[in-house]
Description:
elongated, mainly alpha, 5 helices
Amino acid sequence: MNKAKVLKLAKGFRGRAKNCIRIARERVEKALQYSYRDRRNKKRDMRSLWIQRINAGTRIHSVNYGNFMHGLMKENIQLNRKVLSELSMHEPHSFKALVDISRNAFPGNKNVVHAPRKVALPLSV
């Protein structure tokens, strides 16, 4: 890269990294390496976030993530994790229908023991 392009990319850097060409070239090169790496890491992070959201949604209905996904696979429901996470957050009734379909498709989902619920006791005056 020529000097002008390097300094343009170095705009906003701290210290001499923004105006001294030798330091700017090193910092810009490293910044481009970070951006290349993190474009891939962002995809990885988003997938794990979607899985966490789906898992939280399925555990409300006493099914874990793995069994839920296996049941959907057996029923040939091809929704990706991004869509499933959006459904679990914004469309709980639709998501519950998917959980029920998954539960019926995979026998491992049926023998789930429900945790006892805590009941609030009425205050006596």
